[in-house]
Specification:
Elements: H1 5-19, E1 23-27, H2 30-41, E2 45-51, E3 59-64, E4 77-79, E5 88-89, E6 103-108, E7 111-114, H3 115-121, E8 125-131
Length: 132
């Protein structure tokens, strides 16, 4: 059992892309589904599906995205706020990744969204991870 499902999800995605896998499975949770939704809407993954299993928790099957020459769409994915140290940021202090070329995934009172969406909605929150 993992104490941090988000870190486990990000590590599995990172390792699968380095190995060249087409898909990766992670334990299902609400926050992981929301993160996968943001990654899909921003074009970092191709698709994801929640699959029910015998445990009742289910799994999320993520289809990874590669360029035609085989380079992964995600070059770096890093966990920012961890279980032992939460990182919160106001809308004015949200970090920029690669001068706006990457995204920051933030959990807010209105759900999980990117830093760009947070700036348009004038919301801050817990900085989950950065993706480039």
């Amino acid at each position: 059992m993992h104490s941090d499902p988000i870190a486990d999800m990000l590590t599995r995605i990172r390792n699968a892309e380095r190995s060249g896998h087409a898909t990766v499975t992670v334990r299902a949770s609400g926050i992981c589904q929301d993160i996968a939704g943001v990654l899909k809407s921003e074009g970092y993954i191709s698709d994801f599906d929640k699959i029910d299993d015998a445990t009742g928790q289910g799994i999320i099957k993520i289809t990874l995205k590669y360029t035609p020459d085989g380079t992964p769409a995600i070059t770096e994915i890093k966990r920012v706020s961890k279980t032992g140290r939460r990182i919160y940021s106001s809308v004015g202090d949200l970090p920029y990744v690669m001068n706006g070329m990457g995204i920051v995934i933030v959990t807010t009172s209105k759900g999980v969204m990117t830093d760009k969406q947070c700036r348009t909605e004038n919301l801050g929150g817990e900085v989950i991870c950065t993706v480039s």
